[in-house]
Design goal:
Elements (H helix, E strand, L loop, with lengths): L2 H13 L1 H11 L7 E3 L12 E5 L5 E8 L6 H16 L3 E7 L12 E5 L5 E6 L1 E4 L5 H6 L12 H5 L1 H12 L6 H14 L6 H17 L1 H13 L5 H21 L4 H8 L4 H10 L6 H5 L3
Parallel strand pairs: 3-4, 4-7
Antiparallel strand pairs: 1-2, 2-3, 5-6
Length: 296
């Protein structure tokens, strides 16, 4: 996974595991069933983006990898991890590679790896699934669940009319299955991921306008009011505060790079969620971390 975007994608997967497991299983032609994350000791020797146990009949493991760089040699890496995961779980392991942008479409990603022996005869065929995000429709991601919705902006359909695609994405965030604090997080994730395909100046004005119209939506306000009522439960306020702070870090890092220690300390000291949201909106016009944190 490409490092500037791995935190955003990891958060989407962890927070919406069911959405991702169902989408990946369907694209691989596998049964869709309840899924759970798998933690094995493989991380000490190998690295994979995510392993899911899918509790179908019979159960199986999904091995998910995300890629954006276009480097060669990925099929061999998938095979290596697939075999290791098989040994650790004793279940069939299906590897699915999600390519995030056209640049990632390396020439060796055919969906099948054939290995030949010293005698020239093939001795092993490894099959894997390749999902090319840009070939999917906007609707495919918007209907796959909130956890996949931010990927809609990376499709060719979205690139042809980004403004229209973003409006559809914004409208998806006002639906009842998306809590208000989650809508803000998903909107921020979409902004971060747009950097995989678009120039920053190309999208800043669109996102700023859509952020304001999202806040003005009567449906969104109704959901927000309902969410604030529920937020009286212990821990909800702190959760919203932490989420707002995380989005500020994401947006600021995309524009200015990681926050220096002094800026991070100042950000950690902000205990007003509304101020954090104002800081987030100011990211579109700020010139650096100091300018951003000077927002009242």
């Amino acid at each position: 996974m490409h490092k500037p975007f791995d935190a955003t994608l990891t958060t989407l997967i962890v927070d919406h595991l069911g959405d991702w497991a169902a989408f990946v299983a369907a694209r691989a032609g596998l049964p869709v069933a309840p899924a759970e994350p798998l933690d094995t000791d493989l991380s000490t020797t190998l690295q994979a983006d995510r392993l899911f146990r899918v509790n179908a009949a019979p159960p199986f493991v999904l091995h998910l990898e995300l890629e954006s760089t276009g480097r060669l040699g990925i099929p061999v890496e998938l095979l290596r991890y697939n075999v290791a995961a098989l040994g650790a779980t004793d279940l069939p392991v299906h590897s699915v590679l999600v390519l995030l942008r056209p640049k990632a479409n390396a020439t060796d990603l055919s969906g099948s790896l054939d290995l030949s022996g010293a005698d020239g005869r093939p001795y092993l065929t490894f099959r894997y699934t390749v999902v090319r995000v840009w070939q999917e429709s906007v609707a495919a991601f918007l209907t796959a669940g909130p956890g996949l919705a931010p990927l809609a902006v990376l499709t060719n359909e979205a690139a042809a009319d980004l403004g229209a695609a973003l409006e559809r994405f914004r409208d998806r965030l006002t639906e009842p299955d998306v809590p208000p604090h989650r809508a803000k997080s998903l909107f921020g994730s979409s902004f971060i991921l747009s950097g995989l395909r678009y120039d920053g100046e190309q999208v800043e004005a669109l996102y700023e306008r859509l952020s304001m119209t999202l806040e003005d939506s009567t449906t969104y306000q109704l959901i927000l009011k309902r969410g604030e009522t529920r937020g009286k439960a212990a821990g909800e306020a702190q959760g919203r505060l932490d989420e707002a702070r995380r989005l500020v870090v994401q947006a600021g890092t995309k524009k200015f790079g990681p926050p220096p220690p002094a800026a991070q300390s100042a950000l950690d000291a902000v205990a007003d969620r509304e101020r954090l949201e104002r800081i987030l909106l100011a990211a579109f016009d700020a010139t650096g971390w100091d300018d951003l944190l000077a927002s009242p």
